[in-house]
């Protein structure tokens, strides 16, 4: 392979990036030129789910909401790993091995859930 052939592939990648950037710039320019523009006081006001904003923009949220969200994400992602396991479990020769591996995996999840329960994270008070 010659140096000229090697560097020509970079030129092709650069050309594709340049065309892509030009397409994005053209799309944003067309959007700015073609959109209707009629600002008013109501349109410039902060929107909060159809309710007029009241008070300051600063509000504290209790940490338990974040903990519930993290726990949900952890267990939802872990539940996704059960689907590939279920497909491999049916294949011949994988039954006992995959069953033991999945019990270890679910055991780790159970220990994490037990820890969260013992720490009182799952109580909603």
From TrEMBL:
InterPro entries attached to this UniProt entry: NAD(P)H_OxRDtase_bac/plastid, NADH_UbQ/plastoQ_OxRdtase_su3, NDAH_ubi_oxred_su3_sf
Keyword Transport: yes
Enzyme class (EC, first level): translocase
Entry's Gene Ontology cellular component terms: NADH dehydrogenase complex; plasma membrane
Keywords: Cell membrane, Membrane, NAD, Quinone, Translocase, Transmembrane, Transmembrane helix, Transport
GO MF annotation list: NADH dehydrogenase (quinone) (non-electrogenic) activity; NADH dehydrogenase (ubiquinone) activity; quinone binding
Membrane topology classification: Multi-pass membrane protein
Catalytic activity: a quinone + NADH + 5 H(+)(in) = a quinol + NAD(+) + 4 H(+)(out)
Gene3D superfamilies in the record: NADH:ubiquinone/plastoquinone oxidoreductase, chain 3
Location(s) in or outside the cell: Cell membrane; Membrane
Pfam families, alphabetized: Oxidored_q4
EC number: 7.1.1.-
Residue spans crossing the bilayer: 6-28, 65-86, 98-117
Keyword Aminoacyl-tRNA synthetase belongs to the record: no
Quaternary structure note: NDH-1 is composed of 14 different subunits. Subunits NuoA, H, J, K, L, M, N constitute the membrane sector of the complex.
Function: NDH-1 shuttles electrons from NADH, via FMN and iron-sulfur (Fe-S) centers, to quinones in the respiratory chain. The immediate electron acceptor for the enzyme in this species is believed to be a menaquinone. Couples the redox reaction to proton translocation (for every two electrons transferred, four hydrogen ions are translocated across the cytoplasmic membrane), and thus conserves the redox energy in a proton gradient.
Family the UniProt entry places it in: Belongs to the complex I subunit 3 family.
Record's protein name: NADH-quinone oxidoreductase subunit A
Encoding gene (name): nuoA
């Amino acid at each position: 392979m010659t140096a000229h052939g090697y560097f020509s592939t970079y030129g092709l990648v650069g050309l594709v990036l340049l065309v892509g950037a030009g397409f994005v710039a053209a799309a944003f320019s067309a959007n700015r030129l073609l959109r209707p523009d009629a600002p008013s006081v109501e349109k410039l006001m902060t929107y909060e789910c159809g309710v007029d904003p009241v008070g300051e923009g600063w509000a504290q949220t209790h940490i338990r909401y974040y903990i519930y969200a993290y726990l949900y994400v952890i267990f939802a992602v872990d539940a996704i790993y059960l689907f590939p396991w279920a497909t491999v479990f049916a294949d011949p020769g994988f039954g006992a091995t995959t069953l033991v591996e999945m019990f270890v995996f679910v055991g780790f999840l159970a220990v994490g859930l037990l820890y969260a329960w013992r720490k009182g994270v799952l109580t909603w008070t």
